[in-house]
Amino acid sequence: MYKLLIIDDEPVILRGMTKILDWSALGCEEILLAGGIKEAREQVLLKKPALCICDVRLGEDKGYDLIRSLRGLGFSPHFIMISGYSDFEYAREALRAGALDYLVKPIETDKLRDVVEKIVREKIGDVFVGAKPESQLDPVLSVHLCELSPLIAKIIMIVYEEYSRDLNLKILADRFRMNSTYLGQLFLQETRTRFSDYLTAFRMNKARQLIETTDDKMAVIIKQAGYKNTGYFYTQFYQHFGFSPGKLRS
């Protein structure tokens, strides 16, 4: 059994696609709908559909760009692209992005059924999963990254690499082309920790590690930990550990 996501900016098409085939007979347990790329991306991240049927043009956006952005996040559901445009360029871009097939509107029921049956038979059996991040224990959450969803694991791995730079939820959301509030809710829901609290804890652990294992000056350590304001760093450090950086070093 799998979940199906239908993506089209025309409500009539969305409703019609839910009835064009007997989806339950094809192993579908739930049909999800999205009217645009942003909504589709959120559905994939939250619901993890194994199969997506997507219009190649969604307003000013292109459906094949959705495939690329999802793969960048570690998600690779199987895609069938549809369009009223028979221009080969659209088909070529869709296939280059990773779509398994391309159908031209009006959709022929038999053709769609054949394509879906083939994908279900040959691809769905591998079960849709995201990218597999390295299996390491996160020092803040005390869980292995492979136990987290691909999106949250990817966010955490970005923190590992960029904690010393300017980093916040809005910067991450812009990178993933997501709403920052929604991304923050996903992070909190899965980790039970706000992203800002996670980032602070990670930076504090790094700072403590540097204080204990190096002879670097505090100004250098503060910068490496991602802080520009020395006073704020000292306040955060004391609140986090209950003692000052100076006491730790002494």
- Largest sheet data: 5 strands, parallel
Portion in beta strands: 5-15%
The CATH topology of the largest domain turns out to be: Rossmann fold
CATH superfamily of the largest domain: Response regulator
Helix content: 40-55%
- The CATH architecture term of the largest domain is 3-Layer(aba) Sandwich
- Uncertain parts: 126-134
- Tally the beta strands: 7
Indicate the CATH class of the largest domain: Alpha Beta
Strand order of the largest sheet: 2-1-3-6-7
Give the ordered list of helices and strands.
EHEHEEEHEHEHHHHHHHH
What does this structure look like?
This protein has helices at residues 11-19, 37-47, 63-72, 88-97, 109-122, 150-162, 169-176, 180-191, 195-213, 218-224, 230-241, 245-249; strands at 2-7, 28-34, 51-55, 57-58, 61-62, 78-83, 101-104. By secondary structure, it is α/β, with parallel strands linked by helices. The protein has two domains: 2-126, Response regulator (Rossmann fold, 3-Layer(aba) Sandwich); 145-249, Arc Repressor Mutant, subunit A (Orthogonal Bundle), CATH 1.10.10.60. The strands form two sheets. Strands 2-1-3-6-7 form a five-stranded parallel sheet, with helices on both faces. Helix 3 runs parallel beside helix 4 (88-97) and helix 7 crosses helix 8 (180-191). The radius of gyration is 23 Å and the shape is elongated. The termini are far apart. 29% of the residues are buried.
